[in-house]
Amino acid sequence: MTGMQILVVDDEVPVGELLGVILKSAGHAVTTVSDGQSALTAMENANYSLVISDLTMPGIDGISLARKIKSAHPSQQIILLTGATNSVPASNDVDYVLNKPIDPDKLTGFIAELAQVN
After folding, report:
1. Cβ atoms < 10 Å from Cβ of 73
2. What is the pTM of this model?
């Protein structure tokens, strides 16, 4: 399998870095940013196979970020990470919601399945 280009967005820098390490060890190319505005800038400068974003962030939250990304890139796949699934508002702009804490094996397995489908 060829790795995916993945953009990770999390305002908790250690969480974003950990996700980056996990995904890189699975063979993916990863860019990590710590806020929604930086994510939008990154989207202008590169093509990503997948965006993984935290839900709760200052400024542009995960749902708003997904909406902005999908308006410019309608086919972009977006995974939203959250600590509380009952607080995730319904959104057609988010493809998948995964719960924190993230199990590294489940995350990499899930992404491998996405890569095969696409």
Report:
1. 14
2. 0.92
pLDDT tens across the length of the chain (118 residues): 468 999 999 999 999 999 999 999 999 999 999 999 999 999 999 999 999 999 999 999 999 999 999 999 999 999 999 887 566 666 788 888 888 888 999 899 889 888 877 6
Rounded CA-CA distance 36/110 in Å is 23
CATH superfamily to which 5-117 belongs: Response regulator (3.40.50.2300)
Q: Where are the domains of the chain?
A: 5-117
Question: CA 51, 53, 57, 60 torsion: positive or negative?
Answer: positive
Non-local (6+) Cβ contacts of 50 within 8 A are 4, 5, 6, 7, 77, 78, 79, 111, 114
